[in-house]
Amino acid sequence: MIITTTNSIEGRTIVSYEDVVFGEVISGINFMKDIGAGMRNFFGGRSQGYEEEIVMAREQALTEMESRALDLGADAVIGVKMDYETLGADNGMIMVTCSGTAVKLN
User: Fold this and answer.
1) For the segment 7-43, what is each residue's pLDDT rounded down to a tens digit?
2) Which InterPro entries match (predicted)?
3) CA geometry: angle at 61 spanning 60 and 66, to 5°?
4) Which residues constitute the domain of residue 78?
5) Residue 4 carries which DSSP code?
6) Are 1 and 80 in contact (CB under 8 A)?
7) What is the model's pTM?
8) For 27, what's the count of Cα atoms within 13 Å in the CB-facing half-sphere?
9) Residue 73, by phi and psi: left (phi above 0), alpha (psi -120 to 50) or beta?
């Protein structure tokens, strides 16, 4: 399936717009990743634990959105947008959402 941030697909014609589809993932950051991030914050550098968690959440959200598009019989999802937020009393959770328009192509 084609997933793109653009509103068209080069060389293909959109024959129908099926629906807006979403993918949502809320992922908790565990205690050890928090400790590692705190150390990185103090000493400088990248937080590999948080980065890995964001990558996994993003991939899961895209997979969920694709699955919902497939359920509609779509060939592609266009106009995809992603959003990242922190949640929880101590900002200990990451929410990744994506949305786009499921379309059928000729």
Assistant:
1) 999 999 999 999 999 999 998 875 444 545 554 555 5
2) UPF0145_dom_sf, UPF0145_YbjQ-like
3) 95
4) 2-105
5) -
6) no
7) 0.81
8) 22
9) left
- Helix (H) / strand (E) element for 83: namely strand 76-87
Amino acid identity of residue 5, one-letter, is T
Domain of residue 77, CATH code: 3.30.110.70
CB contact at 8 A, 92 and 19: no
Spell 19-52 as b/e; 16+ CB within 10 A means b.
eebebebebebeeebeeebeeeeeeeeebebbee
Q: Are the C-beta atoms of residues 90 and 77 closer than 8 Å to each other?
A: no
Q: How far apart are CA 5 and CA 8, in angstroms?
A: 9
Centre a 10 Å sphere on the Cβ of residue 100 and count the other Cβ atoms it contains.
Answer: 26
Residue with tokens 């949502």: 24
